[in-house]
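Quick one - first record:
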Amino acid sequence: MSQAPIVITTGEPAGIGPDISLMLASWRAPARLVLLGDRPLLEERARLLGVTVRFADYAPGRPAREGALEVLHVPLAEPCRAGRLSPKNSRYVLALLDRAIAGCMSGEFGAMVTAPVHKGVINDAGIPFTGHTEYLAENTATARVVMMLVGGGLRVALATTHVALKDVPAVLTAAELEAVIRILEQGLRTRLRIPKPRILVAGLNPHAGEGGYLGREEIEVMEPVLARLRGSGMDLVGPLPADTLFTPRRLQGADCALAMYHDQGLPVLKYASFGAGVNVTLGLPIVRTSVDHGTALELAGSGKADAGSLRAAVELAAQLAGTAA
């Protein structure tokens, strides 16, 4: 395993990101952890939750403090109350990501794990923001990345991510699909050490187009790409009807399913694993994992948030950081 610590961005300060990050204090982590966030906010949230946490300031090169939760302090723009969003703190949220990216790129951190952010309030601040995945790609100069969720015995990747459903067919070009499959296949081999991954590829249309009667994307775009990549040695099955792809018979022996759009694949995975699923960004020059849920503003400060997904994200980050090629 990489000896560099794993950095955790605590996310939207009004949400449950600070809460679940604090819950790591009582957990035996698989690696050294550093929380990135406003220390007074974390101290106040710990008091609100009624939990006792020993904090220690993190600095590069400083040894870990046994039994303490290390914090790399980044100040809020204005004080924050649990459950109450403020656009003024949007740049703080992005500053957490920027610091984590810089630390991972320099080798200071071995991986980054992200607590949830609130896309709406960031956009309300006048900052165009589609999501973590796109932001990380842009700020690591990565042309394409692939979102993959892991949990419930499944791995599900997405050919398109935060795209309106009406725009998916135009985005899903042959070149884009081929690039996604290449990144996914390489990530499964190098990050997860699967020598020859078997990938199930969902069709775009109902019944995978029904031979062209329900859409021709499978025939005109997908099948030529899959045939070409099979010719280079990849083990690809599809395009398959999405409504039967996730049956036990289909999944047997498969290493990952590739869905064509966000809500084609993720409802299945989240049904199987919600609260313990992990989001992985493949194709980046750094290791990044994330929780599989949102900011849950209504739970912030209540003590009812569940840190299961964050713990799973840390465990997978430690695994990937230790096995990355």
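second record:
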Amino acid sequence: MQTRAIGDIPVSAIGLGAMPMSVRGHLPDEAQSIRTIHAALDAGVTLIDTADAYTPDHTDMGHNERLVAAALGRWGGDRDSVLVATKGGHTRTPGGGWAVDGRPDYIKAACERSLKALGVEAIGLYQHHRPDPEVPYEDTIGALRDLLDAGKIRLAGISNADPDQIRVAGEILGGRLASVQNQFSPGFRSSEPELELCAKLGIAFLPWSPLGGIGRARSLGGRHVAFAEIAAAHGVSPHQVCLAWQLAKAPVVIPIPGASRPESVLDSAGAADLELTQEELDAL
């Protein structure tokens, strides 16, 4: 599988989004989740994306992080070759809701919890999950800077950010902003400006829900006909075409499709080796 980079760390061009393994309504058993993560690792995937808020409910923060740690602990390969990215700043509320907390003290406490959940001394890539309108963005990113300076995290990133926030984060982190993780897919292209800015600045851009999100990926080819037509011409799935299209947008793009089954992981991983012609890319 071809590689790209986040900061100075090489990673596979396709990552694994582990969120579907811990979200209520799509929750597989632990054994299946671990098989899925192992299938990704065995296929050459070296980037796993998680978050403390990926959990069935508010009482079990860190569920997905602990699952990823367990899978890595049972894998027979080189764990040092795998970059685990997690996030803090999102919270869960009773009833399955979501909220945000961007206070510096909370970000630092969340990082400490994630260190314990992952069982590591330093987190490979730690990203601020979502801006908190009640907290100055500069203050939140200042907490990331402090964690980076303290060696608690090796790389710092942000998520769900706009171009101005990307620039602010880059300035506060002293040029050490390694990644931006925003939603981007055929049906959600409003993050094009952020993608283009990341390409200009050499910052990794990690599209989340690159296939359209949980429950929508299966209908990708039906909703976007060109993807199905080009997939048929190559004898592959529309999912592979979608991910290959995103990879072709810029060398900094590293999609992180979610998966809860080994079959899904293996199909997505194949996109890294799918070459599309310029005519096909224009059609997409």
